[in-house]
Design a protein that fits this description.
This protein has 23 helices and 9 strands. By secondary structure, the chain is an alpha/beta fold. 55% of the residues lie in helices and 8% in strands. The termini are far apart. A hairpin with a 2-residue loop joins strand 1 and strand 2. The radius of gyration is 25 Å and the shape is globular. Bound molecules: zinc ion. The site of zinc ion has 4 residues, from helix 17 and helix 19.
């Protein structure tokens, strides 16, 4: 019944249109910036983050307690460099972004002349925010991003917002302290609100709404949105089919509800058992390596082992599931549903204030193909989703599984000891447990990694950012070292066979390389080099392996080979 279906679709998109139009008008009705103290938190609750955002998370200095924190934001291109750099590629992105903003305003009903005016407004505010924003390297420094102060002091710091009204609107009762994570960025956001004409700011706020909702509106708006973010910025040739987008929307909104179904179907008890054993063996191997480090003193070693033994390990899925009963899914409009999901998530987060940190909470859903380390809870988490090929194979031998999921486990463990993670103690507090000499030795060794990656040319004239990717590169390095040692320990009494002409050691490294094999568009290389703290897949292999002694032995790599590095130039940390 195609006709009926089309009618339904038409009504559906009209309803979406009404919701968006009402939101746009609400912003346009603002008469003075004093109303922002109430409007900005309302927008935040519905999923928009103009100027800056506010969230609730563990206090890095008192890790059992939650703390209200601000975070810089408000720039739609995500990275400050897009507004500030003047190389040909960045300029082109910026020009195309302006065209995109104008087209989007026109698509939601603005005249071409008004749309053009709004582009100038958006660029003025976003460029000011970008200039004041911390860059990605500074954002990785936990001390530089921690500024706990009273609400009274925040009021003096950014007087244009009535913070009592702001927090009350968010539903944050009795807020006494707040960490202003990027102080200068928030001060500038306040100055922008104070000094830019109201009409400029209304255009900017409307843009944030249009930009955020674009993926959930009509086909024409969706297509324009994809044309810029998908094609121009990431080099994609076509968008995902509708069914994939629909599934990922449900996955993103009702993650743990999907997760419950996922683990029932795809996560057998044997997989968890095998994983627990792997994690234990990796922990033993990292302990052995720490004890044998030539550059670390005994007192720091004791503390490092304590931290290692305190890891909170999460595998598969959470013990208690999220309750979604308060979330309403209605048959009105897609964007209205997404707004309700955003509000539901915001409420969930706001509810954490004034409560102790729930260490059993999961920060990834079970079906996620990924893993994480969280420094404030000192936890490593491996969702059920990563326990599949090419990371894990129940039927494969240890050479395969240690080379793939084993390195991932070692990678997450190493995050507890990378340039960032090492600054947190076993309780998850930002507290220095290193002797000055050991810290210096670590930094000297980490710098070898920084310089090595700074020298990698990822595209003609474009270099990797060694400092930005340092934590991830150290984690890959540590992951390889730890997992290879655990692999040798596990197979010491029952050596594996050569398969298809490859020795067990060679298969370990081939399995690792297989995890990161992939295709990437030139545009994505450029955007990810700006935004992703992980090195590109190619360099997670070709940059990591030349530092590993066992890899030279496994493949008999010599100075005649292009990837060869003399021993004194190799990274040696964990
Ligand atoms: Zn990582």
């Amino acid at each position: 019944m195609p006709v009926l279906l089309n009618k339904k679709l038409a009504i559906y998109s009209i309803l979406q249109w009404i919701v968006l139009k009402a939101d746009l008008e609400k912003i346009a009705a603002v008469k003075q910036t004093s109303e922002f103290s109430k409007l900005l938190p309302e927008l935040l609750l519905s999923g928009l983050t103009p100027y800056f955002s506010v969230y609730v998370d563990a206090d890095a200095m008192s890790s059992n307690d939650n703390l209200v924190q601000t975070h810089q934001g408000g720039i739609s291109l995500g990275e400050r460099e897009y507004y500030l750099d003047n190389d040909a590629h960045t300029k082109e992105i910026r020009d195309k972004y302006k065209i995109h903003v104008a087209k989007m305003f026109e698509l939601v009903g603005f005249t071409a002349a008004d749309a053009q005016k709004n582009v100038e407004a958006v660029m003025t505010i976003e460029t000011r925010l970008a200039k004041a924003a911390y860059d990605n390297v500074k954002l990785r420094d936990p001390h530089a991003n921690y500024n706990k102060m009273s609400v009274a002091d925040l009021q003096k710091l950014v007087p244009v917002i009535d913070w009592n009204v702001y927090f009350a609107t968010l539903g944050l009762k009795n807020t006494k302290d707040v960490s202003v994570s990027q102080k200068e960025s928030l001060i500038e956001a306040g100055k922008i609100i104070e000094t830019e004409p109201l009409a400029t700011q209304i255009a900017y706020l409307q843009w944030k709404l249009i930009d955020e909702s674009a993926g959930y509106l009509s086909d024409a708006i969706y297509a324009q949105n994809f044309d810029f973010y998908g094609k121009t910025l990431s080099g994609k040739k076509e968008h995902s089919p509708r069914w994939k987008r629909a599934v990922s929307s449900v996955d993103g909104s009702l993650g743990e509800a999907v997760g419950q179904m996922y683990v029932k179907k795809y996560f057998p008890a044997e997989a968890k058992e095998r994983m627990l054993k792997l994690v234990h063996n990796l922990q033993v191997s990292l302990g052995e390596r720490i004890k044998a480090l030539p550059w670390m003193g005994d007192s720091t070693k004791v503390k490092a082992i304590e931290k290692l033994n305190s890891f909170y390990v999460k595998i598969g899925y959470p013990d208690k599931w999220r309750d979604y009963s308060a979330l309403q899914v209605k048959n009105d409009s897609y964007w209205a549903n997404v707004e309700r999901v955003n509000r539901f998530e915001s409420d969930y987060m706001i509810n954490k204030a004034n409560k102790p940190v729930d260490k059993d909470e999961w920060h990834m859903t079970p079906q996620t193909v990924n893993a994480y380390y969280n420094p404030t809870t000192n936890e490593i988490c491996f969702p059920a989703g990563i326990l599949q090929y090419p990371f894990f194979d129940m039927n494969a031998d240890d050479a395969f599984n240690y080379g793939a999921i084993g390195v991932v486990i070692g990678h997450e463990m190493t995050h507890g000891f990378d340039d960032q993670g090492r600054q947190y103690d076993k309780e998850g507090n930002l507290k220095d447990w290193w002797t000055a000499e050991d810290a210096k030795n670590f930094e000297i060794r980490a710098n070898v990694m920084v310089n090595f990656f700074n020298n990698i040319e990822v595209a003609p004239g474009v270099h990797a950012n060694g400092k930005f990717t340092l934590g991830e590169n150290i984690a890959d390095h540590g992951g390889l070292q730890i997992s290879f040692q655990a692999f040798k320990n596990a197979t010491a009494n029952a050596p594996l066979q050569t398969v298809d002409g490859f020795t067990p050691e060679q298969r370990f490294f081939l399995s690792y390389a297989g995890v990161w094999a992939g295709n990437i568009r030139p545009e994505a290389i450029l955007s990810r080099t700006k935004s992703d703290p992980h090195s590109l897949g190619k360099w997670r292999v070709d940059g990591a392996l030349p530092q590993i002694g066992a890899w030279y032995q496994a493949f008999n790599v010599t100075e005649k080979d292009p990837m060869y590095l003399p021993v004194e130039k190799r990274v040696s940390i964990w």
